[in-house]
Batch of 3 targets.
Target 1
Amino acid sequence: MLSFIPYVGSLFALIAALVVAIVQGWPNWGLFLMALAIVGSGQFLEGYVLGPRLVGNSVGLHPVWLMFALVAFGDLFGFTGLLIAVPVAAVIKVLARHVLGFYLESPFYRGRSGEVLRADAASSSGLETVRQK
């Protein structure tokens, strides 16, 4: 249940593992260090490798963009920004894809009558327009 709250679940798991390691391995610190290494590496892999890949694949975002969204929204809006970063990044991606599609089909991009200005069709009297199929 605590893993749904960022940082709290990881911190609770680390503290619980370290307390058990201290109780079980006293006075030897080897078990404490092993627990620290295992929980730390597990949380690192989950937070920075597996999480972005799994969430990014399900949402359709590249892991780099997902991490950028988390960092940016977390910095701008704090804890609330971390909660809304992935859905807002997915919405921005969909909107950008539609806007780009509309732009590529617009007369502004294609020319007023579907003509494209080609530099290789230039003649001595000036540039010619060539109708694109």
Target 2
Amino acid sequence: MVTTPALSEPFELVILKGGRASIRSVVHGETMHIGTDPQTEALELHIRQQRLPERLAAWNAPEPFVIWDIGLGPAGNAITAIEALSHTTKSVEIHSFEISTVVLEFALQHSEALEYLKGREGAIRQLLDDGVAFPTPQIRWQLHRGDFSKSSHNAPAPSSIFFDPYSPARNAEMWSLENFRSLWNVVNLPDAPDCLMTNYTRSTSARVTMALAGWFIGKGVPTGGKDETTIAANRIALLSSPFDHTWLERVHTSTNASPLRGRNYERGPISVEDFARLKALPQFRSH
């Protein structure tokens, strides 16, 4: 992996092993999409795993099909979704949440190197300037600025969530029990649509946190250098590989299974009390 010379900017371009470009946060010390390029990861992790084109084709509700893009970053997930759904005749809303658009502005300056942005520069500029853009006649793309973990989420309940903040070690509040419970409260309403949430982690503590917040959780597809990721849903029937008692046994012996609470990242085994709560959840109760 080769990087451009260090600059005073908080981000720098990174050339991955395959020759594609990505972005590294100098502040967080993390490279985005390190095992692959942004478009491939978005396709594998979010678009294909959630079967978005197929689910949208079957969408018959009068309301738009809603996607929450949590952690807009350099817009790799949102742009890939726009491309994948560009020929739809159904109404789609993409709600992107981001605390700062500095990385997107950096990406826009390097759209030639970051190939996934080419041809969508106008929509990105409109999103940054106006807070809303229409990259296709059927797709409305809205930007929500602010700290997602502290904000009320003024957007319709989603059918799809791309969960893509920095890692728990660098951004613990986004992976906290409180934040996942806030998300669960949105999708657990009686009239909420079926919803899938995909993310890149395979951390036991992050998975335990999602489950204790109410989510049904399962094994996600491999992507980049990771042999598995995590998928969550508001209804267990949506998961093809939900975790069962075998996973609970691994949680019980793990040294990193304590749920994440508040804004501190603390590693450790799960407590007796939290493990009892986990075993009592509907996903595991039958075991």
Target 3
Amino acid sequence: MARSDELGQPRTVRLPAGEIAYRERGDGPPVVFVHGLLVNADLWRAVVPTVADAGFRCLAPDWPLGSHELAMAPDADLTPPGLARLIAAFLDELDLSDVTLVANDTGGALVQILMASRPDRVGRVLLASCDALERFFPPAFRFLPLMARLPGSGWLLAQSLRPRAFHRLPITYGWLTHRPIPAEVMDSYLQPARRSAGVRRDVRRFLRAVHPRHTLAASESFGAFDRPVLLAWGQDDRLFPMSLAERVAALLPDARVVPVAGARTFVPEDQPDMLAKLVAEFAG
């Protein structure tokens, strides 16, 4: 797997839905990272080293969201609730407890569903600019679930992102970061779907099931989630406004919002040092 060595040692774990590849670095209380759509563990490449050096066991999986190398089983449940159960199964299989979950973008929606359905192994949650409530997806990306219903749309999506100039469009990665993502990282994000029909199948199955009803339903249980939640929100986010973070925090018994200056949606790309500091302080 072409993942940054900064993430630590490569490992795999076999779950009922299929095999999950992940990187692990450091020792201590576990911190598990959950990325979003069409990215992988490389999203955390500049965050994990600082958190690991602060005394934590960092686990950064490639979740089956379109940039993973290992396709899931043909009958795997890749709906948002199904992926939340997959995260729970990962924690179960590795026997991780009192886990700090760190999630960004689409991964934040999956963690919110997990908070509502399987919070038993979760100690605290950090949400960094992510889908929530009625914004699953945000307006700029609501065409994707509709597109995913068309035969061949997975191949079309993978091929349409070949020109690097397209990566800065608002409907691709352009509004997610202030600066262009390095070319080698973009290759890590985009090549798996170009190479693998199984990966394209996985992402289509997920996209077809995306709907705000999942995040809205999860929010109805927020009042019962009594663990600490930190919302580290990009101050310049053009997809998820600060008001969304404040509304989510208001529904949770123990939550606070920390604006991250100089960051859009991909806080780990724009402000990795600040995010790593927040994770280490919050997890500690």
